[in-house]
Amino acid sequence: MYIDTPEVATKKQKEEIRRNPDAEPWYSIFGGRYQGDHPPFYNREQLPWTKMLEDNWKIIRDELLGLIEEHPDRLQPYKINKSMSFPPKRWKTMGLIFWNMKNHNNCNRCPQTMKILKSLPGCTSASLSILEPQSNINPHQGDTDAVIRCHMGLSIPGTLPDCGFQVDNDIRAWEEGKTLPFCDARTHTAWNHTSERRYIMILDVMRPEFSNRKNEICAHVLASAAVQMLYQKYDFLRRRKRYIKKMIYHFVRAVMFIYLPFQRISLKRQPK
């Protein structure tokens, strides 16, 4: 297993902070359509941590796919926005880390994968993502531009035009063992029109200029996710004034900002 040390990444983070001291992240919940200048896809050769993932991709694949083979119930349809996939419930995930909140039951069963993720600079989210045959993930924007989102192919049933991924007007195919880092804030969509499941790993790495604001940004996005789920579940909220949504959002954000530093300790459980 190849694991790099974080010293180089830390130096780059400090350099990026010095270059962009006034940088502010964009958030989708109240930010409107993304108008930033980040490209649809990033050059993975300029992101050293992508090589770390690619060098260890078989370890990650075997551990994650082995766990869902043993416990298929750990896979769940994507819940935050149930209209995201078509047909419904065809996009499924098994979460490890969600905006700095760990699913300890899953993490404890994937020790080698977690060791790799811990070596990444500023990893805030990681999950196994499955797209069922003859399914689409509808076009959508992500929650923020504060992270670099990355897909890594684990088991890919086909290539373009039958199975692929699009960010703005740029269309790419997944490849097993290869990463696709992209700007999650830009509109993107995915499809699997083959007869087999598509398996990828999805992860987020904090952009270096925001590395010292990790908990703040994660609290923002967790609050946004909570608001989306509440408004999806309770129709009466949609008829309320916009300020109600903002009140809920700011309250949840404050709670999460306080809670995040402690949850990794308080939620630890034994493997099942």
Automatic annotation (TrEMBL):
GO terms for cellular component: membrane. SUPFAM superfamilies: Clavaminate synthase-like. Residues 54-208 form the Aspartyl/asparaginy/proline hydroxylase domain. The keyword Disulfide bond does not apply. The keyword Membrane applies. Pfam families: Asp_Arg_Hydrox. It comes from the Bacteria. InterPro entries: Asp/Arg/Pro-Hydrxlase, Asp/Asn_beta-hydroxylase, IPNS-like_sf. Keywords: Dioxygenase, Membrane, Oxidoreductase, Transmembrane, Transmembrane helix. The chain crosses the membrane at residues 247-265. GO terms for molecular function: dioxygenase activity. Belongs to the aspartyl/asparaginyl beta-hydroxylase family. PANTHER family: ASPARTATE BETA-HYDROXYLASE DOMAIN CONTAINING 2, ASPARTATE BETA-HYDROXYLASE DOMAIN-CONTAINING PROTEIN 2. This is Aspartyl/asparaginyl beta-hydroxylase domain-containing protein. It comes from Fulvivirga marina.
